[in-house]
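Write out a sequence, fold above all:
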Amino acid sequence: MKLIESQDTIQIALLVTILIASIIPVSVIYSQASNTISSVGYIAPTIDISVNSSKVICINNLSLGFMLHGEWKSWRDSSIRRGLARDANFKLIRFFSHRVEPCTYWNESTKTGVFNWTDVDLLVQRIFEIGAEPLVTIGFYSRTENSMLGPQGMANNSATGLPYPESWAVYCAEWVKHFEKVGLPVRFYEIVNEPDLYFGFVDRTKLSHFVELWNTAARSMRVINDSILLSHCAIMFTHVMDYWLQNGDDVDFLSFHKYDCWVTSGSGYHDDATILARAELRYFDFVGDARKRWFKARGKLLPLINSESNLNSAYDGGADPRIQQIVGAVWTALVLRMGILEGLSYNVYYSFSSASYGKTSPTGGAGFGMVNSINNQPWYPYYVHYMLGNNLVAGDSIVNVTSSSDDIRSIAWVHGRTLNILLICKVDQRRIVYLHGVEGELNMSKVDNTIPWETPSVQTDAISSTDLLIINGYTVALLQTSAHS
């Protein structure tokens, strides 16, 4: 390392050093602030990130959410886990009715049930206490049992394979009626999780049966409270919307589920590069068009909600261990970035916590959670949510930022008086970033693969805007500086 006095000499020395590096593998770090040039042992491509904070491209709508599945009770009863959710500023928490079923018995002949709401009420209260609100998904079609999961005693119509619409509608309305009675302001409901498992992509008859079931339930629920927001996660499939716009009642938001792989080995398994490409493309390529189509047909511009999402949906024999590793954090960041750009209102991560045994476990791979349910320690995807949740809210201005390479995605926004720049490295190779359009010192928070994925943490540093920033492979980094008016 050599101190150099003249600015012209600095530029010459830098050029000479880079030329030498083309022969001897040396990577250059140049700091104009300290007039120094140093080497780190490997020459890497340089990527320019250019920020124009005076050019607003859109306004952020996105807030963060997560799913509570089998871990709903442990989350509800753990102050540590609720604290982690509060600390990351999650705003929407989804759960299934059949997991915390309040109806202990349903009498099909009288269309009445016996209810115990104790577990439901405490869960919903805990959700509101951390500053979030619930999304209740009522009903779950099980492909393994080939039937709808409703309360014990509710009959399925043998002709349709679904509950009788009038009976189902009374049951769904009981949820709304109860929350009205106890003063819990629950707004969001989905009527049946993943109903496409029932009607598929070609069975128009089954689709008509589901629409009748949904319409009947929605009407009964809206009689109790016409301010609730109702939908289901298959509404944006083209064949579903085609039929729905002719035969279905209004939905109040457009919901979808996003997984970018379905197996952990063999045919259909996708490598990192494919997964990360799908993160930015799959479903995002049509949500905007579906929203416009609904507006054209019904005159309502509806909120968009990704109500269930993760890198891989496979669970037989253990889920994909990449979910909790650094590539899972990169995937999560890419999805959230696209959610911001596509105008989503919520993105729900599946799920909050799970156990993990790693790749070598005889019981399979990691679970779906972003928090280790054994020791309550977060994995990498939690920290991505934490960085965004504490520095991005609905109404923030998204400003113009460009990258000279697809290897690093970027997005920038102004939150209060702070300019935030999120960098997402999609390749597991070193890259060197040069920032344009910002001045002075920036605070940096990042996660990368330099710390073991089993015990990840957020690394912090302060850098000068004139420094070349080394990115060591898969990385999610948040840079922050004062926003200039």
